[in-house]
Amino acid sequence: MIHFNRALEFPLSPSLSYLTGLHFCFTLGSSLVFLGDELVGVILYLSMAEVVGPRLYSCCNCRNHVAHHDDVISKAFQGRHGRAFLFSHAMNVMVGPKEDRQLMTGLHTVADVYCSDCRVVLGWKYERAYEETQKYKEGKFVLEKSKIVKENW
Ligand SMILES: [Zn+2]
User: Fold this and answer.
1) How many whole angstroms from 57 Cα to the centroid of ligand 1?
2) pTM above 0.85, yes or no
3) For labelling, which of 86, 102, 104, 106 has a CA lying 20 to 30 Å from the CA of 51?
4) Structural domain ending residue among the three candidates 36, 52, 68
5) What GO terms are given for molecular function (predicted)?
6) Domain range holding 39?
7) Are 86 and 133 members of one domain?
8) Ligand 1 centre and the CA of 140: distance in Å?
9) Residues, beta carbon < 5 Å, ion ligand 1
10) H helices within 4-140, ranges in order?
11) One-character DSSP codes across 83-120
12) Of 133, 110, 132, nearest to 123 (Cα)?
């Protein structure tokens, strides 16, 4: 799936290592940049299909991949530190002990969710909801917007 095309421009000299990071891109074309007679750069027109891949969220602290954008159920959740997202799945996380918490939407059994790499608290998992209208949250993850960063997009 091709999401979009991107033109990258960079100077020739120190950037060959940067180029190697792009080996999995499908290059649509390139053009050379001259300053007078001197070749100073190259522009690559890339299909970002491979680079974009699945859109991920990472731990803000260590960049561990913790969730897929496709697994977002809601972006309108209230976390402990502001906005939070509800995800159907999370990965590379550890789930702490269960405890009952009275939340704005009623009593829930929840467990803190930690980054498996750096152990920072990212949010919580709903283990059980006691009210019928809240049952859809069971098994889902809330990650604080301030604790995750977009990766690859
Ligand atoms: Zn982390």
Assistant:
1) 11
2) no
3) 86
4) 52
5) metal ion binding
6) 5-52
7) yes
8) 19
9) 59, 61-62, 64, 115, 117-118
10) 16-20, 49-52
11) EEEEES---SEEEEEEEEEEETTEEEEEEEEEETTT--
12) 110
